[in-house]
Design goal:
The chain is mainly alpha-helical. 67% of the residues lie in helices and 0% in strands. The protein is built from 15 helices and no strands. The longest helix has 17 residues. The termini are far apart.
């Protein structure tokens, strides 16, 4: 809206500089803006994400990874990933390939292309920002999720389980009788970064909160999703 655009424009001077990083005051203002409007204005969103995630925009490093060619682990991605937009699919393949060259775990984890997809779509032609945003989120907000690969991150999932147990013991008890329990349901949400339960616009709004909310927010979001849908789960 016009009001939210005006709020973002006046929220902090660092939005006008490619080099400035957000101060504590900047962060507070942006969080207040998010609380007031529920999302960042589209014209400022990616800039805010880049600032809040402190992306280095290291084109040289990305180009070095891209120059290695398409990684064998994603050579068939264009056949197994259902995207009608060919240009978007090829960008996804290139960024996924760069990630696989950068860290072997990204070559082996089958969930990575699905997790990466909304970042590639959001950042459009800028593959560097998509790569850096995904890598930053995984290393911070999703820290430790791949440490037990190919097993899921049992420690993080136990935290989600405990949150649900605290806020809704009946739901937690019921879910223990279901295949996978709370932890299985939580991993389905987290391993897709909620893309399976949100529209494209909803995902962007959700990640406005994730990039400004700290590393534990994703776990609380998974618990909250289960609690919000308790009636359906209990039915």
């Amino acid at each position: 809206t016009a009001a939210s655009n005006q709020g973002a424009a006046g929220a902090s001077s660092f939005l006008g500089s490619d080099s400035a990083q957000p101060s504590h005051a900047d962060t507070v203002k942006l969080r207040n803006l998010l609380d007031a409007y529920g999302e960042f204005p589209g014209k400022y969103r990616l800039l805010v994400w880049r600032k809040m995630l402190r992306l280095p925009n290291n084109e040289q490093a990305y180009d070095a990874l891209a120059s290695k060619g398409i990684h064998p682990s994603v050579a068939d991605l264009t056949e197994r990933f259902p995207i009608a937009d060919r240009s978007l699919l090829l960008r996804l393949q290139r960024v996924a390939s760069a990630l696989a060259h950068w860290s072997p775990i990204f070559a082996e984890a089958a969930v990575v292309p699905g997790m990466l997809f909304p970042f590639v779509k959001a950042f459009g032609a800028n593959e560097v920002h998509a790569f850096e945003a995904f890598a930053t989120v995984v290393n911070n907000h999703a820290r430790g999720w791949f440490e037990l690969f190919p097993d899921p991150p049992f420690g993080a999932l136990a935290e989600v389980d405990a949150i649900v147990q605290f806020h809704d013991p009946r739901l937690a008890a019921h879910m223990q009788s279901l295949p996978g329990g709370v932890q299985g349901a939580a991993w389905q949400l987290l391993s897709t970064l909620f893309t399976d339960v949100t529209t494209a616009d909803e995902w962007l709004k959700l990640f406005d909160h994730v990039v400004t909310g700290g590393r534990d927010l994703l776990l609380h979001l998974a618990a909250a999703f289960l609690v919000v849908w308790r009636d359906t789960i209990l039915a």
